[in-house]
From TrEMBL:
UniProt xrefs under SUPFAM superfamilies: NAD(P)-binding Rossmann-fold domains
Keyword Oxidoreductase tagged: yes
Record's keyword terms, sorted: Oxidoreductase
Protein name: Oxidoreductase
Organism: Paracraurococcus ruber
InterPro entries: NAD(P)-bd_dom_sf, SDR_fam
Listed Gene3D superfamilies: NAD(P)-binding Rossmann-like Domain
Family membership: Belongs to the short-chain dehydrogenases/reductases (SDR) family.
Length: 236
């Protein structure tokens, strides 16, 4: 029986752990060849092993979103040259940044948050736009956060990046509305990830949904039959 994403190529950022890793594994289960990117080679290899155990295939593309801007700029053309196509982008990478009053944000922390949580989104859109537009059913999904709509004290450094990312993605969705490409954002809510654990160290992760519980919702937004466009979809 044919898999719904058989023959497609998916790029997943933040694929070494958490929602990125779980989504990559789910996309591979659905038949996609996954290009995995994150900073940690060893962790990417573990995800690759999990995908291969399912009978899927993956390609590893280690990079640091904060430092490897030029390398990130070449991701789209490199994938298109190697595989002849790019059908799916899932941008799950992000950095928590320091929880601090806005007036106390330090320049170094600001620069890191901008690079990872905002600039990387712009670079990904720029590099992936041509092959995704050319795909038979291009799909892009960006992970967002409820903080965008409801700012909280001390979360400004993290929240502004997510807000900017959401604005970029929704603007892009307007620009490609007449194409076959569909762009959406997904708010997973609280999930038992490393980032969540850093932010809420006193919280019992066993009380939260696990990444593998949420990944099918993200992968569903990547299917050819997904018609929603320019929406912020919340796990609920």
């Amino acid at each position: 029986m044919a898999k719904p994403l058989e023959g497609s190529v998916a790029l997943v950022t933040g694929a070494s752990r958490g929602l990125g890793a779980a989504t990559a594994i789910e996309l591979a289960r659905l038949g996609a060849h996954c290009v995995l990117t994150a900073r940690t080679q060893g962790a990417l290899e573990e995800v690759d092993d999990a995908i291969r155990r399912l009978g899927g295939q993956a390609t590893l593309f280690p990079l640091d979103l904060a430092k490897d801007g030029e390398k990130l700029d070449m991701v789209g053309p490199s994938i298109a040259q190697r595989f002849g196509r790019l059908d799916i982008l899932v941008h799950a990478a992000g950095v928590l940044a320091k929880l601090t009053p806005v007036a106390h944000i330090m320049p170094r922390d600001w620069q890191e948050a901008v690079a990872v949580n905002l600039s990387a989104c712009w670079r990904l859109i720029r590099t992936c736009d041509p092959p995704l537009r050319a795909a038979p059913a291009g799909r892009a999904v960006f992970l967002t956060d409820g903080l965008v709509a409801e700012p909280r004290a001390y979360w400004g450094l993290y929240g502004f990046g997510k807000a900017g990312q959401e604005h970029l993605a929704r603007s892009w969705s307007e620009e490609v509305a007449s194409t076959k490409l569909r762009v959406n954002l997904f708010d997973p809510g609280p999930v038992a990830t490393k980032l969540r654990g850093m932010a809420m160290p006193g919280e019992d992760p066993a009380t939260l949904p696990q990444p593998e519980d949420v990944a099918p919702r993200i992968a569903a937004l990547c299917l050819p039959e997904e018609a929603r466009h320019g929406e912020v979809i919340r796990r609920g």
